[in-house]
Amino acid sequence: MRPPFPPSPERSAELRRRFAEEARSERPDLSTLCLLVGAEADGELDEAGLDAAQVELDRLAGLLPYRPGGPRAWAVALRELLGERMGFHGAPADYQRLESSLLHEVLVRRRGLPILLSVVWLEVARRAGAPVYGVALPGHFVVGFGPDEGQVLADPFDGGRVLSGADAEVLVAGATGTAIDPSMLRPADPLDVVLRILNNVRAWAAARPERSDVALWAVELSLLLPSHPARLRYERARLLVQRGEFLAGAVELEAYADVVSAVDEGAAERVRGEAFAARAMLN
Q1: Exposure on the CB side of residue 218, measured as CA atoms within 13 A
Q2: How far apart are CA 166 and CA 225, in angstroms?
Q3: Which residues of the chain are modeled with pLDDT < 70?
Q4: What is the rounded CA–CA span in Å between residue 116 and residue 105?
């Protein structure tokens, strides 16, 4: 992928307004939120590109058989269409690519991280009327079909392979070293899915200090979600300092310290020290 060029400040402001509005709507649309993330990453993704991605999801849904049956039949139908016919899958190398976290790129490349491939499965299946939802297993995102008592899991990263109970246990044990807990199999909230995607983008950027621009927009979009970790404000402040915006970073560090002081004065003092050091860099 070519180096992603950010949108103009005016375009970015509009994208963020729409992202915040969608995130706070009564029923946030997962594909819309993911595509807005992609537009914030890639300035060449214009309105026509956003529409084209939604049309592609509609097209794929139209290729599914009409109401194939129960949860397992739905899982198999999605595997045959997306995994086998269309070639959507993942590979270890995809973890090293930013585009693996961008829905519009995943739709073109048919490669991506487990959570983005799962978004494709979810949005195609939802459009076709399947009883589908995301399942945020520790360290690996999959999709689920059907109610608790008849739940069927599929792994889009592995081409949509239908998982046995033992398969799911192996995935969880590999990520946590512990046994699977029923709470891990609950449907994931769309906004939690988006936050997890943005966390992946932040992790990608954290391994590449020269891409602090990517880390910054990922943090700032996360902060637009109705529910987010408070520590993201600290992370944003530190990124501003890292990028040479010393005064803005110091102001945000001081604001974060004021919040933290209510529960941990020692931590607040350390953050104030960082703010002092940032201000000193202005001299």
Answers
A1: 23
A2: 35
A3: 1-4
A4: 10
pLDDT at 180: 82
CA distance 250 to 47: 37
pLDDT of residue 4: 67
The dihedral of CA 112, 118, 119, 123: what is its sign?
Answer: positive
Question: Which tokens in the block code for residue 85?
Answer: 């016919």
Residue (of 116, 163, 115, 132) closest to 64 by Cα position: 132
How many CA atoms does the CB half-sphere of 275 hold within 13 Å?
Answer: 19
Rounded Cα gap, residues 140 and 132, in angstroms: 17
Could you tell me the pTM of the whole model?
A: 0.93
**What is the amino acid identity at position 136?**
A
- Sheet with strand 132-137: strands edge to edge: 132-137, 140-145, 152-155, 161-163
| Burial of 283: CB neighbours in 10 Å, binned 0-12, 13-18, 19+ | exposed
**Residue whose pair of structure tokens reads 């999801």 in the numeric block:** 57
Hunting for tokens 């589908």 — which residue is that?
Answer: 132
**Measured CA angle at 127 (ends 125, 130), to 5 deg:** 45
How far apart (Å, rounded) are the C-alpha atoms in residues 157 and 225?
A: 26
> How do 132-137 and 140-145 pair as beta strands?
antiparallel
Question: What one-character-per-residue DSSP string does 46-63 give?
Answer: -HHHHHHHHHHHHHHHHT
CA geometry: angle 56, 59, 65, nearest 5 deg: 140
Give the number of C-alpha atoms closer than 13 A to the C-alpha of residue 133, restricted to the C-beta side.
18
Q: How far apart are CA 143 and CA 187, in angstroms?
A: 9
Would you give the distance in Å from CA 109 to the centre of its chain?
17
